[in-house]
Amino acid sequence: MSALAGPGSFDGAVERDDADRAGRSSIPEASGSMWLLPALLVGVVLFAIATSAHATLYKWVDQHGLVHYSDRLPPDAVNRASTQLNREGIAVRKIGQAPTAAELQARQAAEKQKHELDRERMLAERRDRALLDSYTDESDIDLAKTRALATIEGQITSAQSYIAQIAKRREQLQAKQASYAPGAVPASIRSEVASIDADLARQAEFVVGKQKEAAAVAARYDADKRRFHDLKSSLADDASPDATRLSAAGASRY
Predict the structure, then answer these.
(1) Predicted pLDDT at 1
(2) Hey, is 35 helix, strand or coil?
(3) Are 207 and 156 in contact (CB under 8 A)?
């Protein structure tokens, strides 16, 4: 009986070894299936959404750092950065995150500053062109300055002459007022004196304004003269290499 039990025991041992090996080999396969399951689920979700009636898929990250996929963006994800995918899951469009109020304000301020700088540059270029078109040399600017100042000086001289006339008339009225003392001065004389005083104040203000205008005009022409000189010098420097090459080319022909 022991002989009969020997082979039977050997076969049983073989069967147990085979079962153990089969069990051990199934462990990594089951582990691999567990890792593949989330990827398969994501693939199924992507496929289901991409093949839906909308045929558009959005991918975005929420405030907790979690990635989401859907066929439309929820309200809380509209202002977040997102990626639009096609049916094959390929990115076809990237949408940046909406700027904050502070970022938007800073961007608007930068755009405004750039617009102002561009406008100032355009006006400066226009003034330079007008300056070069208006004068042939610096003496023309000096002549224009002299004429402009002469016009203003003539206005000042005329106002000062008028001031002297009405001041003389006021002296005459004051003498008349003294002759009525200690009686009452006629109302007509008092009214004329008051009118002259007001006119003298206006004329004095006019003269001061014209003197300031003359100073501003002189400064503007002086600035134009300096700018004209700089522009002419720049143009001469830019043209000098061409002139040198032309002279060299002409000399090489002889």
Answers:
(1) 38
(2) helix
(3) yes
Q: Where are the beta strands (DSSP E) in 37-179?
A: 57-61, 67-70, 82-85, 91-95
End-to-end CA distance of the chain: 132
- Nearest CA among 130, 100, 104 for reference residue 227: 130
d(CA 213, CA 203): 15
Closest CA to 54 of 77, 87, 28, 19: 87
Of 149 and 235, more confident: 149
For residues 49 and 24, what is the distance between their CA atoms, to the nearest angstrom? 39
Closest CA to 225 of 150, 147, 131, 152: 131
Residue whose entry in the numeric block shows the structure tokens 């007509």? 188
Residue 136: φ, ψ to 5°: -100, -30
Distances (CA, A) of 140 to 14, 94, 206: 119, 61, 29
3-state secondary structure of 60: strand
Amino acid at 2: S
Task: Quote the CA–CA distance of 190 and 170 in Å, as a whole number.
Answer: 10
* Helix/strand/coil for 93: strand
- Please state, in angstroms and rounded to a whole number, the distance separating the CA atoms of residues 104 and 99: 6
Model confidence pTM above 0.85: no
